[in-house]
Each structure stands twice: as structure tokens, then as C-alpha cells.
Specification:
- With 131 residues, the chain is α+β, with helices and mostly antiparallel strands.
- It is globular.
- It has two helices and eight strands, in the order H-H-E-E-E-E-E-E-E-E.
- Helix content is 25%, strand content 40%.
- The protein has an eight-stranded antiparallel barrel.
């Protein structure tokens, strides 16, 4: 009977941990926290290339954005980016928007809104741009 009780408690705690982890992804970074997390940073995808086919996004401090090709690593102009509440968006071709969350296997997750019908989440690494 004692083993059944321990197993039940262990399962309840595991369920709570999963719920807490999922809850952390439900609140995207916003405002100054989002600006600080993204501006002047290179976002590299844990699974390279990403679902979009790019290996990274580079958010320059002057508002320009570049994308690294997943195939050859070449930088491509990706327009300019702007912040809207809890999203950062690029004006490249059509507007592409992303949300950033703390959590996941890399410490940060990105949500792509250019996918339909559902957005796609991916693990990313953030690093300060060189130079």
C-alpha cells in the first residue's frame, strides 16, 4: 500500500512540473523585456535549419534584420523589425511575426506566426551580436 501511495504522489508531482513548464510558455516576453531579449541579438535555432528554412535571425540595433540561410549560411536582408506588444515583426515581403518565451530545452522558445493554421514553436539560442 505504501508503494502505491508513493507512486501516486510521484505522478501528481510530475504532472505539476509539466503544467508549470507549459504555463511558462503561455506568457510571451513583452515590452522592455522583449526589446532587451531581441535587440542586438542573434537568434540561432536548436534544430538548424528552422521550420522556416533559416539557420538564424539577426536583429541589428538599428532596426535592420537579417536571416542566415540554412543551406550555405549566407546572410540575407530580412527587412526591418518593429515591436508590437508581445510580438516582434519584420516588414520583409509580408509581415512575419514572432513571440519569444522563456523555457524549453534551450532556455528560450520562439513562436512563428507565419505558419497556418497553427503557429510553430521552436527552441532557440540567443547571443549578443559581435562588433
Amino acid at each position: 500500500m505504501k508503494n502505491v501511495f508513493i507512486l501516486a504522489v510521484s505522478l501528481m508531482l510530475a504532472g505539476c512540473a509539466t503544467t508549470a513548464s507549459e504555463a511558462a510558455l503561455e506568457q510571451p516576453l513583452s515590452g522592455d523585456e522583449l526589446r532587451t531579449a531581441v535587440t542586438g541579438m542573434t537568434v540561432t535555432f536548436a534544430d538548424n535549419p528552422s521550420a522556416t528554412g533559416y539557420g538564424c535571425y539577426i536583429f541589428q540595433t538599428d532596426g535592420r534584420m537579417e536571416a542566415c540561410s540554412g543551406e550555405d549560411g549566407a546572410l540575407r536582408d530580412y527587412g526591418r523589425y518593429s515591436f508590437f506588444d508581445d510580438r516582434v515583426c519584420s516588414d520583409f515581403h509580408e509581415s512575419h511575426c514572432w513571440q519569444f518565451f522563456r523555457g524549453g530545452p534551450s532556455g528560450t522558445m520562439i513562436r512563428h506566426f507565419s505558419f497556418r493554421p497553427e503557429p510553430v514553436n521552436e527552441a532557440v539560442y540567443l547571443a549578443r551580436n559581435e562588433g
